[in-house]
Design a protein that fits this description.
With 467 residues, the chain is mainly α. The protein has one domain: Up-down Bundle (Amino acid/polyamine transporter I). The protein is built from 15 helices and two strands. Strands 1-2 form a two-stranded antiparallel ribbon. The longest helix has 46 residues. The model has no long low-confidence stretch (mean pLDDT 90).
């Protein structure tokens, strides 16, 4: 591997920024009004995030256990290949690749949404030739914005991990700063009242445990990103032993950010509303900024300045996710190619920057198709991202359990079994429709899942036939 090694230039802060930037995206800013408060209320959501953090920390212990043994790019692919062979490694990586790859264009197209819904007074990208796909209006101006972001961040990713690591850290500082400013303003504002957070659970839901579980069930999607750390392990300029602390801090910061954005949403209620239940219900049929309760509440708190601060935070979240998943996806593809599971051309490194250039260009080539499809179709594909994350969690936990059994490590045997059980439960909730939870894949997502599975089967068979 000496001629195909990646440069060790990522500091602990860079790696934390990689993980946290991937965890918090556009969805974190809109889910309070669409999912979190509707399904669980402020107290139920906070308890669900606490439970999710505990579960993800358990799973992160399994990742840490394997990173110490295999501090190379590829993460799950390397771990599974070492214990369960190439076939299982390919299955794991194929679904994980779908998870990571689909989020790249999702972030790029989210840029248009922030201008469409919040910053349209500054610049409107809804211009040029347009058409409708699955009820979503696709404008050429928004397509060009997404394509520009995809190309720019592909170029940055090729330029070297030192550049991308520093830029990722800068973006995450903006992300954290924006949320912190608005959170402090909400706490200090005299109009903020603890009464605004009552009731703690939606009044139409009798079973509070079910309310908590309904949010806990989407935690693989909400926290996908901490598992990008193993993909960058070969580029650490520090001991892999520090990776567990970095993963835990990223998970805790992610959980805190979700709760903070939930709090901001109902810290001040607009005039005419006695409680958050009525406010969130009214936002569903409102027009203008009120359709985005988190942004509308920020406007009530700090006016236009607060709206700009939160918008900067959102844009930083989108761009950090775009850059982070470019890195994670390219390292996974690079590792698979280096082991000849996919064409070796993807393992070639840039002569100067030592980055997997061809893997990055492949991600760009696939991603530029998505903006023309519209957010609705892209959403059907991204809905499968949680399944890919669950597959990665399950395999890594199982591998950790196997290693721990061979080495008589009781703690990791327990975390391995627990991590595997949680991952399987997450997968069941995604694949099997269960009343109230309402997070199972839709028909369109099942169709794309079938297509992706068939593609993987024939691709693997064809590659094996060439050996």
């Amino acid at each position: 591997m000496s001629d195909k090694g990646l440069k060790k230039q990522l500091s602990p802060l860079n790696v934390w920024a990689l993980a946290f930037g991937c965890i918090i995206g556009w969805g974190a800013f809109i889910m309070p009004g669409e999912i979190f408060l509707v399904k669980a209320g402020p107290l139920g959501m906070a308890l669900a995030m606490l439970a999710a953090a505990v579960i993800l920390i358990i799973i992160s212990i399994n990742y840490y256990y394997m990173i110490k043994r295999y501090p190379v790019a590829g993460g799950e692919f390397i771990y599974v290949n070492a214990i369960f062979g190439q076939k299982n490694a390919f299955i794991c990586s194929w679904f994980l690749m779908l998870c990571y790859l689909s989020i790249v264009p999702l972030n790029a197209t989210a840029l248009a949404l922030i201008f469409r819904t919040v910053l349209h007074n500054f610049f409107d990208f809804q211009f040029g030739f347009h058409y409708t796909i699955a009820g979503y209006d696709v404008y050429m101006g928004e397509v060009l914005l997404a394509l520009t972001a995809l190309c720019l961040f592909a170029w940055l990713s090729i330029r070297g991990v030192s550049v991308t690591g520093k830029f990722q850290t800068l973006l995450v500082m903006c992300l954290v700063g924006g949320i912190a400013v608005v959170s402090v303003a909400a706490i200090l504002n005299p109009q903020t009242s603890w009464a605004n957070f009552s009731p703690g659970f939606p009044p139409n839901i009798d079973n509070h445990l079910v309310a908590i579980l309904s949010i806990l069930a989407i935690s693989p999607w909400a926290f996908v990103g901490f598992d990008t750390i193993p993909q960058a392990a070969e580029e650490f300029n520090f001991s892999p032993a520090r990776s567990l602390f970095i993963m835990i801090i990223a998970i805790l910061f992610g959980s805190a950010a979700y709760v903070a954005l939930n709090m901001i949403t109902i810290a001040i209620l607009p005039s005419g509303f006695d409680n958050w239940v009525a406010y969130i219900a009214a936002s569903k049929t409102a027009s203008g900024l009120m359709t985005l309760p988190t942004f509308y509440s920020t406007y009530l708190l700090l006016g236009q300045a607060g709206l700009i601060a939160l918008s900067v935070s959102v844009i930083a979240a989108i761009l950090s996710g775009l850059l982070g998943f470019y890195m994670a996806t390219s390292r996974l593809i690079f590792a698979m190619a280096r082991d000849n599971v996919i064409p070796a051309v993807f393992s070639e490194l840039h002569e100067k920057y030592k980055t997997p250039r061809n893997a990055i260009l492949f991600i760009l080539a696939v991603s530029v198709i998505a903006p023309f499809m519209g957010r609705t179709v892209l959403g059907w594909i991204v809905d499968m991202a949680s399944l890919g994350a669950a597959v990665g969690y399950a395999y890594t936990s199982l591998v950790a359990y196997k290693y721990a059994t061979d080495n008589d490590d009781t703690i990791v045997k327990v975390t391995g079994l627990l991590g595997f059980a949680f991952a399987v439960l997450f997968a069941i909730l995604l694949l099997v429709p269960i009343p109230y939870f309402n997070i199972s894949l839709g028909r369109e997502s099942y169709f794309f899942l079938l297509v992706w599975t068939v593609m993987g089967y024939y691709f693997y068979r064809s590659r094996k036939g060439q050996d």
